[in-house]
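Running this now, will post back.
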Amino acid sequence: MDVVNLDKVEAFRTKDGSEIRELLAWRNSCIRNQSLAEARLPAGGATDRHYHPKSEEIYYITHGSARMEIDGEFSDLHPGDAVAIPPGKPHKIWNNGDVVLRFLCCCAPCYEHDDTVMVDDLNIA
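Update: finished.
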């Protein structure tokens, strides 16, 4: 049985600039086809706009508030909100609150730096 506690996971930076704590993936468990991580963005922070050719993602907001953009469509997010991000769709998330934004990221297949393509920002927020 693979059990991983968030407080014992070392953080790293993803290609899009977010701070990630990978909870479960092929790197540390028997999981092979998906990954689960917690992302954190400081107040006023944002990821760089990017997309994943292979992976679909789910973001689930646990703390703070955010503004999300997926392929030119915007939504405000709050704790308890989940958002689906299809493969190939450029996206970006902003922390528009005054506390650290924390959200779970589920990726299938697993998150990989090589599956992250950076794109120009739309200069919109």
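The mean pLDDT is 94. More later if anyone needs it.
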